[in-house]
């Protein structure tokens, strides 16, 4: 006999109504009228129930870099953040550039996974930008998108061929936009802070000129382009322009780009070092506007864990990247919803329905029949970000010590709890014996 | 540009975060840079530097101000002058001087800088004088070495505070002790210059103005926010100035395509007598050395009476004496 789970008195993320949602055998079911042999009841007490969050841009570091993260620890961190699915980048060792590695990533954790893992496969062999990877076969093996993330596809001609070749798969190419020559050996945003600290700058134009290029290539080829982790006002404009022209171009941004400026680098703080780098106050404002006006299609974390030793190197030597899965929802609520930039419903949509549509993942809602990938969170609950408590192996975040609002109480994937906050308790009920119910 | 001009408030950080690192510069046992140093501290260092200079000139025997102090000179980037200057200062004050240079070290065997420095800390070196090609290396060591005082002897493109102090001491003499109402022109490769950053920070604190000029390819982003004004030509920068500092041009700037040629540079940005005459009558000519003769500074300048390039060198040992004394005193206060 399966267990029935009831989320009692939850706030429906879309309607705002108080609802009770029942889950059995991995799917949302109608509330049984006559009770059940064994039901566990989670009193949501007004917390918000939504589809599980989806992060289309994470680095799970497997295969090959398990000191930084594993699919197990990365998906556990995802579950703690309310995520039930992640799309992971192929810049691993070796690079995920063959159907076999796509399969391997998909099945690595098997039934023990804490979140659904959707591999993104490389565009070019070894992400070297020289030779097309077997895109058709990798799509067939389960890749949800293609990307040379971490490395831009430097050659416009190669990007054109990749787009033409990928078009029949219907899958987007996720573009890490950065002109390698303009980028030079920059380590943070080019601007006053870099000048003050004597660090080499990454100009915003290195990102936006590539966005412009790939928007035009989307027009030329008719293939789908998804602009990754946008950070500058000019990049948001490029995406806005593409939409105005009706092109198949979409884009994403990350919490740090709508919260922090490059001043956060402070005294050579490597926990504020990521690529693209933190930009200016004008870019932060432009980011919020692009999210508000629908230019940005979905939100992502660019969760990029590194070891403590790596992030403890001097600023110029330390790797780019911070973790984000366990803080994303709170940073969205605290810095987009609470200041009034977005409604809670729209903010959740940008983490749930929007990314599912973009990568053509199965829809999830709270109606009977839907797969039970759910997140329950209290948007008013305040907590302090403490990297020591992260499930991720990566601990580097510029938000350490920040007070934020919005705490995940429970995450459920396919009817199974993948995360429960320590203060969540169940009430067990045995309403009617099965035999009697059967009469 | 399609952005509207509405200005949304940027949410303020909640609680302590990245901005909460203990301000390293406030620990007196370190000298990481002149940015953020208080006017009182700066003036005290210059006054002490002037006193040490007089003592050094008298040729008296070594003193014992730094008795018991081990100073590790760590030069991961070549610099004969700065290292020698620090070594003379430390020995004259009775310190135990150790020298570490990267070429002869285990840094070649993959040991990190921090590992090496931790070993020296464990051996009892109290002050580390560090020269490194990476900006921020001294701040990095200061954060990770709890029992060591760090003296920045030049880090990448960031700061060179003892050079800044010797420049300030030189200007203090030339300007009769008053910085207010004075203006220094700095010419050349501001982008890559730690000398310029330290000079600008110090002059700002003391109330003098700075005008910078140089090729656009060698000008850092948002340069004016360092606390200076940007002039379009060297003439514009130098007219009515109270001094000019010509910065050294590295030959590799040509290789990287940042400059067409040294000949063109000398013509457009070189300090020659015609340009010197644009400045006030008592204006000085400075250069951190070593000079590329005929490039940054025209050869006729060596006859100019207000050329203070060698005074700068002499002042170097004096200010380094003052710095080592201050750091050692603070080390004893903070850690002993």
Structure characterization notes:
The complex is a heterodimer of chains A (439) and B (336). Chain A has 439 residues and is α/β, with parallel strands linked by helices. Helices cover 29% and strands 22% of the residues of chain A. Chain A has 15 helices and 19 strands. Chain A has helices spanning 71-80, 99-107, 135-140, 156-166, 180-183, 192-197, 204-221, 233-244, 255-259, 281-292, 308-311, 328-337, 344-351, 353-358, 434-438, and strands spanning 4-12, 18-24, 27-29, 39-43, 48-51, 53-58, 83-88, 116-121, 145-147, 173-175, 188-189, 201-202, 225-227, 249-253, 298-299, 374-384, 403-413, 416-420, 426-429. In chain A, the strands form three sheets. In chain A, strands 1, 2, 3, 4, 5, 16, 17, 18 and 19 form a nine-stranded mixed beta sheet that branches. An eight-stranded parallel beta sheet of chain A has the order 6-7-8-9-10-13-14-15. In chain A, strands 11-12 form a two-stranded parallel ribbon. In chain A, helix 8 (233-244) links the parallel strand 13 (225-227) and strand 14. The relative contact order of chain A is 0.17. Mean pLDDT of chain A is 94; it is low at 432-439. Chain B is α/β, with parallel strands linked by helices and 336 residues long. Chain B has two domains: 27-160 and 316-335, Aspartate/ornithine carbamoyltransferase (Rossmann fold, 3-Layer(aba) Sandwich); 162-313, Aspartate/ornithine carbamoyltransferase (Rossmann fold), CATH 3.40.50.1370. Chain B contains eleven helices and nine strands. In chain B, the strands form two sheets. Chain B has a five-stranded parallel beta sheet. In chain B, strand 5, helix 6 and strand 6 form a beta-alpha-beta unit. The longest helix of chain B is centred in the last third of the chain and has 27 residues, at 309-335. The relative contact order of chain B is 0.16. The interface between A and B is large, with 50 and 46 residues.
